[in-house]
Every structure is written in C-alpha cells, then in structure tokens.
Amino acid sequence: MKKTLLIWIFICSGVYMSGQNLKPSSIPGNVKATFTDIYPNSQPSVWSKYNGNFSAQFELNNKNMYMVINPAGEWVETRAQITRNDLPAATLTYLTANYGAENLKEMYKVTHAGGGVITYQVETGDQLLQFSTDGTFLKTEKASTALFSK
User: Fold this and answer.
1) DSSP code of 36?
2) Per-residue pLDDT tens digits for 116-135
3) What are phi and psi of 29, to 5 degrees?
4) Which CATH number does the domain 21-145 belong to among 3.40.720.10, 3.30.70.3450, 3.10.450.360, 3.90.1150.10?
5) What is the H or E stretch that residue 119 is in?
6) Listed residue (81, 123, 82) closest to 104, CA to CA
7) CA 127 – CA 71 distance, rounded (Å)
8) Could you tell me what percent of the chain has a pLDDT over 90?
9) Distance between CA 70 and CA 55 in Å, rounded?
C-alpha cells in the first residue's frame, strides 16, 4: 500500500510539474480532426503544447508516437520511437564513437510535413542530436526543449 501511494504521488507530482498536459476538451476541433484523419484507429493518451503547436502522444504498433499539429490544424510532424537497430548505420557509428552506446537514451524517427522528409533524433542525456536519413549529423539542441523530454 505504501509503495502504491508513493508511486501515485510521484506520478501526480510529475504531471503537475510538467504543466504542459492539456485536457482533451481544450484541444481545438480542427486539431483533433487532423489527428483522426491521419490515425483513425488510434486515440491520444496525452495532449500537450509543444513550441506553440499541439502534440498528441499515442501508441501505434507497440511504438510510442507523437504527432505535432499546428493551431490551424495542419500536420507538422510525427515522431515514432525506435531502437538503435533502426538507426542508419552512419548515425550509430557516429553516436558510438562520440557518445558511447551506453549514453543513448531515446531515439525517434521523425517524418516532417511538406514532402515527408525523414530525420532521426537521439537523446544523449542533456542533448538532442539530429541526423539525416543517410546518417549525417545535422545539429544539436538542448534535450529539455525536445518533444519527448519528461
């Protein structure tokens, strides 16, 4: 019972501290409609704000997913959680040489609107590294600004 209570307190405090989770009733209809049009058989488990846009967290084919939709209801990007085996070989080589395999945390395949450009993002502690489809390093940003940071 004590353990359950402590877990519940921890979960509640994390939700309170994040402050970005939104009630489904506060999501504009056009944003919800875009999500439903693209993923008709899925339901978001969490809605949140991300860089002025709306983010829907959901599960698809046993993968953690995020869909980002702007306030006009336009799809911005979708992120699918992947494993290191799903990364391009050049990306994995770069990461292992520069960060060590044990420092790789969450990894995502990102499909962007406007042509479906795909990039890969890897969180390595306090950094979010971005790579092209062929594995070329693109840029780094603080992981705290990343969509999937907790």
Assistant:
1) H
2) 899 999 998 889 999 999 99
3) -60, -40
4) 3.10.450.360
5) strand 118-123
6) 123
7) 28
8) 66
9) 9
Using CA atoms, how far apart are residues 117 and 121, in angstroms rounded to an integer?
13
Element (H, E) at 67: strand 63-69
Segment 83-108 shows an average pLDDT of 91
Q: What's the CA dihedral at 59, 60, 65, 69 to 10 degrees? A: -100
Q: For the segment 24-75, what is each residue's pLDDT rounded down to a tens digit?
A: 999 999 999 999 999 999 999 999 998 899 999 999 999 999 999 999 999 9
pLDDT of residue 147: 58
Residue type, 25: S
CA distance between the termini of the chain? 26
Neighbours of 56 (CB within 10 A): 28
CB 30 within 8 A of CB 38: no
pTM of the model: 0.78
